[in-house]
Amino acid sequence: MANSIGANFDQEKAKVLPVKPFLKWAGGKTQLLETLNELYPKALKNGECSHYIEPFIGGGAVFFDMLQKYPIKSAYISDINFEVIIAYKVIQKSVDKLIEELGDLSAKYQALNEEKKQDFFYQIRDKYNEQKDQLSYSNSSEFGVERSAMLIFLNKTCFNGLFRTNKRGYFNVPYGKYKNPTILNKTNLLAVADALQIADIELADFSESIKYIKKNSFVYFDPPYRPLNKTSNFTAYSAFEFDDTQQKRLADFYKKLHRDYKIYLMLSNSDPKNENPEDKFFDELYQDFTIQRVSAKRMINSKASKRGSIYELIITNY
Length: 318
Known about the structure:
Blueprint: H1 11-16, H2 33-39, H3 42-45, E1 51-54, H4 61-69, E2 74-79, H5 82-110, H6 114-132, H7 140-157, H8 186-195, E3 199-203, E4 218-221, H9 244-260, E5 264-270, H10 281-285, E6 290-297, E7 309-316
Parallel strand pairs: 1-2, 1-4, 2-3, 4-5
Antiparallel strand pairs: 5-7, 6-7
Helix pairs in contact: 5-7, 5-8, 6-7
């Protein structure tokens, strides 16, 4: 279970030195935090709801923001992405070792000229991918710190700061050519480690979160978004695809939680009507709940001209 140290998380200190996601993340919610805060249940804002659950933690923008603004006393966060969960656990339990390892990578990288920096990036990417086949969740303690350092390094120096793998689970994002990327943010990693002390962190399917439900819990679902068209498919952010069958399974789980528990639910997803006004996939799937359309910026596109405002869905049971 979560470490009791987290109960002493200093919200006032966090207002001066805000806790931020340690990974850049496709579909991250940083840009929507102000909007989401307006849509949270009143029970969260007045302190009646102090247990937080997020089964698709990803970069964790909502979790870290919420912890700084509301009296959250305990949390459960999970994902099916093995690499990401290992990184969260390493920061929670071994942040000093991670800082040392990441600092070494950063120093070696920054000492190189541009051509050699690119070569170094691909050397680390190759090592990261070659190591993958030797790994399992059960032996993660043997390699976790080194692997998490490589993950953060690759995330900060790759193109567009993406986490993307191919079907075999190999990281395949190319070099990003940033002039001076911040590879090691020691202050933030320490703050993240402090924040994570209140959380149980698991490698798990979203349905496993039902084991951690408490009275008046607030559950936020941020699954891989349903693609707006065939060319925007980004559902495979890990080796596992999240297609329409999975979206429907999630909707069934959402309905079960609403039916069987006195808790607050929020879910975000893409709005199919951005591309096809007749596509009522989510409107029909969640027809018994409150569906709101909010404006967001499309950030994941290789062409800047195709990055612009679109609508996303926020679905709540209150």
